[in-house]
Amino acid sequence: MSSLTVFYIGLFYFATFVLVAGLTYRIYEYWKTPAPLSIPTTPAPTTRTGAVFRVAREVALFESLFKSNKWIWVFGYLFHIGLALVLLRHVRYFSEPLYSFLVFIQPFGEYASFVMVAGLAGLWARRFLVDRVRYISTPSDHLILALLIAIGISGMSMTFVAHTDIVNLKGFVRGMMTLDFQPLPTDANLLVHLFLVALLMIIFPVSKLLHAPGVFFSPTRNQVDNPREKRHIAPWAAALERDNS
Amino acid sequence: MAGPEFEVPKMSEYTEVPKIKEGAMAHAKSFPAAEASQTSLGFPWKLTDDWHDRAINRMGELLVKYRGLRVFMDACVHCGACTDKCHYFLGTADPKNMPVARQDLMRKVYRRYFTLPGKIVPWLVGAEDLTKETLDDWYSYYHQCSECRRCSVYCPYGIDTAEITMAGREILNTVGMGQKYTSEIIAKVFKIGNNLGLPGPALEDTLLGLEEDIEADTGVAVKLPLDVKGAEILLVTPSADFFSEPHVESLIGYAKVLHAAGASWTFSSYASEAGNFGLFNGNYETMRKVAMRIRDAALELGVKRIIVGECGHAWRIAYAFWNTLTGLGYGGNDPFSIELQKQLDPRYKQPSHICEYTWDLIQRGVLKFDKSLNDDRVITFHDSCNVARGSRMGDEPGGQFTIPRNIIRAVANNFHDMAPETIGEATFCCGGGAGILTDDLMEVRVKGALPRMNAYNAVAQEKGVNFMALICAICKAQFTKVVPYYGFDMSQIGGVHQLVSTAIKLEQD
């Protein structure tokens, strides 16, 4: 096995470990940090089911962003829906057998890559064109967009320009999953694509990409508006009460 | 009034988003708190020698105590959705008044000391060391935020800048950089029991004087009882209601409503303040200590029901926090909560807003009005931020918008709403909330009122509106002071219960 294959196997085990362990740790942190006061942004749902739907609308439809700014909503939504379809399409490289759903989604996933990159381009353009957004943009804001676009374009180049050996690629991926290691095809666009994906996985738990788990833990969105009927008290606040009352 | 030392913004048909002007409001510095009040709050009063480590330690403590702060520090993607939502940005064009930039003042420090990339490659992720200049920036810009939560409505992750401003002020207090206005007011509550520093005997005199005024005016002996043990209802109202104009007109309104309903009720000289400036500084212990006065008074007087007067942040705390802080509400199964629950009448929401109380009486036909007495007024309603985005009235979400409007329509004939993007959950703050209501921040207050003034001016021009009704003591004080800068008369500002007071028909005894 070539040293290149060994390097990529090592890289992906490392990236997967960082992503899974890092996100697990962050989610654990968010989970264990108490929300001591009832602070849903009102009007808010008065039932737990209602609050679950509110968060679901936030995740699936970007409801608040839609209220806020139609341009960001359009570009952000195009990017995320494109990314979702592209990711679903990629399941075929991990899954054996090839379920009919994966066959069905294949063409949608392929063309969704254009939607995804168009959305990213729109979001990036705003960082230059809107003075307020230009002011708040940090180098990392630009670099994450560049990274995602580079992942998109390197991937699209394999679908629409120069195909890689997809059978061997799947062999490589399945090999990592089953510990039966297989050589990695050496097309440049594939190597770039995989390297950048691994980089994205590694920075996920230490960057603003944490908005993905964060949205589920945001107390202004996930809390139920019932403070007169239910007493919310954090453990540290209850301890304070025992000491002081 | 002396001429302003700053340029009053020009009103326009719609509030336009300005081009950013860096540093436009960097000079705004609220007066610092002095020794006496800071000591009574338990904070240092001048910058401590160990300010750097002290600030970082406090930030670390807050990050493990408040999930909101913890998540909000990480989740922002700098999308820009909030950048044009803050009234202070719209009125000043200072980019640090954009919610995300205000958050970033803290987030850059968070990233530097609490995240891996910020420790390794600070320049890449906008992380910076905590310096004295950073603290000065915090002091300036965390006192140009009224914690109104408008940005949190529009953030795709619900990031609430108010939570970050509160944490920022808490850290500033911890290192000895408190703000005079909030610090002194909290100290007055600790010492005397209300924000105005009005002692019990003075309060009693004031209420007797008001009783005489009402009787002279209406011929009906409407009472304003104080410290009546065994009364059914304890009415807790912002102390400004006792003698500020136009607040007192609403106080008279509450008294008339309670009289017409034949209620047994009382004020408390011990709990003579619904406001709780502890919220503004985000210190849980302070907020709890202030709120406990109401619990103690309720237990002492043996009341069965607690009603809160017209005050925005007070209602947020009463509605959303009293149950947590003081056990005043339902659902608690610990001895502390049960002690109070046993005494409260479970038929009623605890606490209730005076508007909930009045609207219930109106619906049941208990109150009678002569709406024509309000005919000289063409009325609009300003949704106060803490009521709109931090609380509720009634059973349905959004009751905080419908109930006050329903009351106005029941007592007056001429009502027009302002533009939809300026009311309801999208309401613009008056510009004076959360510790900004002080003369040393007059420029911030006047400029921050611009979006509301534009919306008010639009209905004044189109519909002939000449009265802005509201249910917040801070809004009332802010607007009466600020509307003259925009060419309106302060008499155009008043309370919902002022309108009730004008129209209500009282039966002669």
Write a short abstract of this structure:
With about 240 residues, chain A is mostly helical. Chain A has helices at about 5-30, 50-60, 65-70, 70-90, 100-130, 130-135, 140-160, 165-180, 190-205, 210-215, 220, 235-245. The mean pLDDT of chain B is about 95.
Provide an overview of this structure.
The complex is a heterodimer of chains A (245) and B (509). Chain A has a single domain, classed as Up-down Bundle (Fumarate Reductase Cytochrome B subunit). Helices cover 73% and strands 0% of the residues of chain A. Chain A is globular and about 70 Å long. Chain A starts with a helix and ends with a helix. By secondary structure, chain B is mainly α. Chain B folds into three domains: 132 residues, Fumarate Reductase Iron-sulfur Protein, Chain B, domain 2 (Orthogonal Bundle); 171 residues, no CATH class; 136 residues. Helices cover 50% and strands 4% of the residues of chain B. The chains are: A mainly alpha (245), B mainly alpha (509). At the A-B interface, α1, α3, α6, α7 and α10 of A face α2, α3, α5, α7 and α9 of B.
* The CATH homologous superfamily of chain A: Transmembrane di-heme cytochromes, Chain C
Low-confidence stretches of chain A: none
Cα(first) to Cα(last) distance of chain B is 45 Å
Order of helices and strands of chain A: HHHHHHHHHHHH
Rounded mean pLDDT of chain B is 96
Largest interface: A-B, 68 and 79 residues
Structural class of chain A: mainly alpha
Continuous helix count of chain A = 12
Radius of gyration of chain A, taken over Cα atoms and rounded to an integer in Å: 22 Å
Oligomer: heterodimer
> Helicity of chain B, in percent?
40-55%
Integer count of domains of chain A: 1
How would you characterize the largest beta sheet of chain B? 4 strands, parallel
Name of the level-1 CATH class of chain A: Mainly Alpha
